[in-house]
């Protein structure tokens, strides 16, 4: 019986195409906007979570005048004997602005015993790993960055630098990483080359990365580091992750807040259309009642009708939201949610979809929509059919 | 004609069930002998009593292992625990067991195995009460830890 009512509802939607498009169109836009913000926020949060896993437990920077400055290599020895500290690595890295990309690339120096690829959490996509040594002058770059630069293994690149002694680097391979950002902006080379390119004096490093054997001691170790290196900025991995999490959530809240009037206008329009029954529909209900349909069967038919329109519109809205973010690269939304996108090359977004949130969006739109369209149908179905047909 | 085939199918089915049972038995998770909690193989609180003939008995915390040992339920020659700071398994006799403070085990207050050279730093950082050698830990001491 329900199947025949469903078939009737399907035919009713087909009969009133224009109304269905008007109702569905509003819903599609509202759902697409909501879903796009949720998709983008989740994707950024997932990226931040992957970044957290790749981060050192603690990073120590030296501050001069409140700004990060270079730190001496021998400062590392002051931290080696803190209980729970497994390793302290002085890192050499920095940014170089590439006019051709209108963005920064990150040059990371690697030295033995760490394998260059392990520094970027990467796996080789093409070519080979760099040969470490002063005279090799080789580099591997993220696969996306190589694509931006139009480079293939064997090509040479002279990065803009103030140091005339810096060598052009030969690309020997590309890598992929669990972190999209790394594949889009990281250049890995020998430490001596990075030092020359970034004009870093010998004996100094960009920062110190501290690895702990017991991560539960992070807070205590951070406190001890502050005591031993007064004036240093100590960045804990968990705090960094929390900052990312909060900042993406806050930005998504701003965007959604700004979009609320538009979403409400669309929903009110859709609900207004759904909640009012035209004379034709009222007559149709009266005829159905006159030929023996019960009130509940009429209500089921109307519910199916709204659900058909609502579900199709919600599905289409979700698909549009997905395409907007992950296929088109989130034009319009990305600058609002991604703080660093202006300076860094554009990394592709990795889809991260939370099923619970999709369900919440779908139900919050479809539930009220279906309920509101039931009320006028119930009113029409409970009036006398003869009276309705006469008016 | 079909009877031997049916028997063969039945035999194959029974064999499959037996193999599955055996496999589930092999992968059965270890449980603490004292409190019955599941012992996570990667846990930093895992403790092992080494009994006669190198027999290993696994516990979820040092407190459970010591309670089991000190109440005479297991004869043991040594206790192997994971040192708090470097997270490496060590002989309990080489370490100190710290009581009190803000470091809690998976079952609440516990004895924290700490290298003798780092005990004072631990007590200072975590506001702990005192550190004991393995031989000093009696069932009375353990009862005191549990009631903290």
Q: How many DSSP-defined strands of chain B?
A: 7
Order of helices and strands of chain A: HHEEEEEEHEEHEEHEHEEHEHHHHHH
* Average pLDDT score of chain B: 85
How many extended strands of chain A?
14
Oligomeric category:
heterodimer
Total count of helical runs of at least 4 residues of chain A:
13
Structural class of chain B: alpha+beta
| Principal-axis shape of chain B | elongated
Helix content of chain B: 25-40%
Q: Calculate the mean pLDDT score of chain A and round it.
A: 83
Low-confidence stretches of chain B: none
What is the CA-based Rg of chain B, rounded?
A: 22 Å
Per DSSP, what share of the residues of chain B sits in E-state strands of 2 or more residues? 15-25%
Shape of chain A: elongated
How many domains would you count in the coordinates of chain A?
Answer: 2
- Percent strand of chain A: 15-25%
Largest interface here, residues on each chain?
A-B, 8 and 13 residues
- Major sheet strand order of chain B: 2-1-3-4
Key terms:
heterodimer; A: 391 residues; alpha+beta; seven-stranded mixed sheet; five-stranded antiparallel sheet; elongated; B: 148 residues; four-stranded antiparallel sheet; three-stranded antiparallel sheet; 7 strands
How would you portray this structure in words?
The complex is a heterodimer of chains A (391) and B (148). Chain A folds into two domains: 2-51 and 243-390, no CATH class; 57-237, no CATH class. In chain A, strands 5, 6, 7, 8, 9, 10 and 11 form a seven-stranded mixed β-sheet that branches. In chain A, strands 1, 2, 4, 13 and 14 form a five-stranded antiparallel β-sheet that branches. Chain A has a two-stranded antiparallel sheet with strand order 3-12. Helices cover 54% and strands 19% of the residues of chain A. In chain A, helix 1 (2-15) packs across helix 10 and helix 2 runs antiparallel to helix 12. By secondary structure, chain A is an alpha+beta fold. Chain B folds into two domains: 1-29; 47-146, no CATH class. Chain B is elongated and about 75 Å long. Chain B has a four-stranded antiparallel β-sheet with strand order 2-1-3-4. In chain B, strands 6-5-7 form a three-stranded antiparallel β-sheet, with helices on one face. In chain B, strand 3 (78-82) and strand 4 form a beta hairpin. Chain B is α+β, with helices and mostly antiparallel strands and 148 residues long. Helix content of chain B is 34%, strand content 19%. Chain B starts with a helix and ends with a helix. Chain B has four helices and seven strands; from the N terminus they run H-E-E-H-E-E-E-E-H-E-H. The interface between A and B is small, with 8 and 13 residues.
């Amino acid at each position: 019986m329900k199947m025949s009512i469903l078939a009737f509802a399907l035919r009713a939607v087909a009969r009133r195409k224009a109304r269905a498009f008007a109702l569905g169109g509003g819903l599609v836009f509202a759902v697409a906007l909501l879903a796009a913000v949720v998709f983008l926020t989740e994707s950024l949060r997932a990226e931040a979570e992957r970044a957290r896993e790749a981060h050192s437990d603690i990073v120590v920077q030296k501050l001069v005048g409140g700004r990060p400055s270079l730190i001496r290599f021998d400062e590392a020895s002051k931290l080696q004997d803190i209980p729970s500290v497994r390793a302290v690595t002085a890192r050499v890295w920095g940014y170089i602005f590439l006019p051709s990309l209108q963005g920064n690339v990150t040059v990371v120096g690697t030295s033995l015993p760490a394998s260059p690829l392990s520094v970027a959490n990467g796996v080789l996509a093409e070519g080979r790993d760099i040969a470490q040594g002063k005279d090799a002058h080789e580099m591997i770059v993220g696969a996306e960055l190589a694509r931006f630069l139009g480079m293939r293994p064997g090509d040479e690149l002279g990065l803009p630098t103030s140091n005339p002694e810096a060598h052009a680097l030969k690309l020997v391979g590309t890598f992929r990483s669990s972190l999209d950002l790394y594949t889009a902006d990281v250049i890995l080379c020998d430490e001596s080359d990075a030092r020359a390119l970034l004009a870093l004096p010998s004996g100094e490093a960009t920062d110190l990365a501290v690895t702990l054997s017991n991560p539960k001691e992070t807070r205590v170790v951070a406190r001890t580091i502050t005591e031993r290196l007064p004036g240093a900025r100590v960045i804990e991995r968990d705090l960094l992750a929390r900052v990312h999490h909060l900042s993406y959530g806050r930005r998504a809240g701003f965007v959604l807040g700004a979009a609320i009037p538009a979403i409400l206008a669309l929903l009110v329009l859709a609900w207004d259309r759904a909640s009012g029954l035209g004379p034709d529909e009222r007559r149709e209900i009266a005829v159905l009642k006159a030929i023996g349909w019960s009130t509940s069967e009429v209500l089921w038919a109307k519910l199916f009708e709204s659900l058909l329109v609502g579900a199709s519109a919600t599905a289409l809205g979700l698909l549009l939201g997905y395409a907007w973010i992950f296929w088109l690269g989130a034009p319009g939304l990305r600058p609002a949610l991604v703080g660093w996108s202006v300076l860094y090359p554009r990394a592709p977004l990795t889809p991260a979809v939370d099923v619970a949130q999709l369900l919440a969006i779908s139900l919050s739109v479809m539930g009220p929509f279906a309920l509101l369209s039931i009320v006028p149908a119930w009113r029409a179905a409970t009036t006398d059919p003869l009276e309705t047909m006469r008016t | 004609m079909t009877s031997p085939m049916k028997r063969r199918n039945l035999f194959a089915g029974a064999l499959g069930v037996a193999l599955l049972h055996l496999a589930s038995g092999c992968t059965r998770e270890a449980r603490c002998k004292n409190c019955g909690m599941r012992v996570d193989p990667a846990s930093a609180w895992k403790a092992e009593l080494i009994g006669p003939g190198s027999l290993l008995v696994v516990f979820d915390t040092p407190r459970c292992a010591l309670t089991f040992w000190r109440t005479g339920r297991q004869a043991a020659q040594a206790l192997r625990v994971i040192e708090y700071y470097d997270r490496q398994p060590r002989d309990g006799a080489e370490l100190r067991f710290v009581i009190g403070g803000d470091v809690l085990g998976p079952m609440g207050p516990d004895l924290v195995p700490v290298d003798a050279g780092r005990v004072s730093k631990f007590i200072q950082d975590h506001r702990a009460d005192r550190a004991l050698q393995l031989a000093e830990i009696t069932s009375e001491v353990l009862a005191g830890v549990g009631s903290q």
